[in-house]
Amino acid sequence: MTRLYSWLYGAVLSATASCHSAEPSMQVSMIVVPQAQQRYDTVGDWRFDTDGNLHITVSQLSDPRYETLIAVHELVEALLCKAAGITEASVTAFDTAYQGNGEPGDDPKAPYRHQHAAATFFEKKMAKLLGVNWKAYDRVVAAK
Ligand SMILES: [Zn+2]
Hints:
The chain starts with a helix and ends with a helix. With about 140 residues, the protein is mainly alpha-helical. The relative contact order is 0.15. A three-stranded mixed sheet has the order 1-3-2, covered by helices on one side. It has one domain (about 1-144): Arc Repressor Mutant, subunit A. Helix 2 packs antiparallel against helix 4. It has helices at about 1-20, 65-85, 90-95, 115-130, 135-144, and strands spanning about 30-35, 45-50, 55-60. Helix content is about 55%, strand content about 10%. The model has no long low-confidence stretch (mean pLDDT about 90).
């Protein structure tokens, strides 16, 4: 577990470093909106604008800690996708066309499945640190 954590942490650091060298002024914004204001049926969304700034949009949830968990997930996923050359457009295209059950990022065919899995790893770590019951949180998110 510790080795996995180190690897993931290293992956995020290198993603951040490569973002930094390409766009030294990258800014990250995280906003919470009503679910209806998301671009599609999701609780978390990310996109890079033409200046390379990252915008994360989180749906309003019953517990602010849940919103934090979504934000952490989106941040990690977006930075790792950028580092791997996976575009937001390809992620959004997959998500909006997805017909299966559960989260599209968990599907083996998802172009960003590894980045999503790493993001979920950090999300779970953060849930533990915030004292969030993962199953209760997961039920709330799944019902959205
Ligand atoms: Zn994801």
